[in-house]
Amino acid sequence: MIIFLNNKYLPLEEANISPLDRGFLFADGVYEFLRTYNCKLFRFDDHYNRLKYSAEELGLAVPGKGNLKYIINELVTKNHFSTKEYSVYIQITRGASFPRLHKFPVADCEQTMLIWLSNISSNGIENENGVKTILLKDLRWGRCDIKSISLLPNVMAKQKAVESNAVEAILMREGYITEGSHTNVFSIKNSVVSTAPLSNFVLNGITRKVVIELCKNHELKISERNILIDEILGADEIFLTGTSTEIKPVVEVNGVEINKGLPGEITKIIQHLFYDYVKEN
Ligand code: PMP
Structure pTM? Predict the structure, then answer.
């Protein structure tokens, strides 16, 4: 596997990062994750804009859009991905600096940029049958709109879900649902599809954005509003969205069955709209 690290293309085994890298010491960095459909990067501009937003909020620089595309294309060639679907992981940190000081380094520091491509594993059976979820307190910081590499509360929440025999943790803050540990959450009641509005407590998910567009374009009622915890437990249908998750029906929350433990009809319609849409892109 050939990766891109600090202006070099090199085998993963030969890639080294300094122990002084602020990504390692402070989780001082941002990341982005995107994928292809039909061997074309899906909603590249949206992902690029989110990376730029996250980076700029933290005073980090991003490469130009053309430059980033060029690097990804080089990786596609070097890793023989040109006829395959793949995902792209991009991480930018503030780089290595000594002594270890909280404040941003002034001069001695160059950002670290890491990019790799991976194969995509299918969601198959989970997205057909639906998954179990649990509710957990949202322990994250107040800037979840930034796609920061500081993911410990997300990691803890996902692990708790796995240990509870569930696939995702749905997070709650002050009585409302925010999002999942690595997904956005939608609930449906009386044919109205709802998801938490964008705020500093929610990531501006690209799949979320696509689903909202699809609902609007196909006359499905869609509402961006705060969802109470009781509403999620009494929802007619629930689904999760994400780049690797796609559209994943939820059939159980904290042991409570949703739609008698089956993926809902509107969720299935949205799944179909989504798969039709990505085929055209
Ligand atoms: N929320 C969080 C916390 C996430 O990590 C992700 C995955 N990046 C999402 C939502 C979904 O975002 P997207 O649809 O852009 O993958």
Answer: 0.97
Dihedral sign from CA coordinates of 221, 226, 229, 231: negative
**Domain residue spans of the chain:** 2-119, 124-280
Instruction: Read off the pLDDT of residues 207-219 as tens digits, 9 standing for 90 and up.
Output: 999 999 999 999 9
DSSP structural state of residue 228: B
pLDDT digits (tens, 9 = 90+) for 109-123: 899 999 999 999 888
Q: What is the pLDDT of residue 9?
A: 98
Among residues 147, 189, 216, 248, the one annotated as catalytic is: 147
**Would residue 147 show up in a list of annotated catalytic residues for this protein?**
yes
Task: Report strand pairing: 112-119 vs 2-5.
Answer: antiparallel
State if residue 243 touches ligand 1 by the CB under 6 angstroms criterion: yes
Q: Which CATH number applies to 2-119: 3.10.20.30, 1.20.81.30, 3.30.70.980, 3.30.470.10?
A: 3.30.470.10
Radius of gyration over every alpha carbon of the chain, rounded to an integer in angstroms: 20
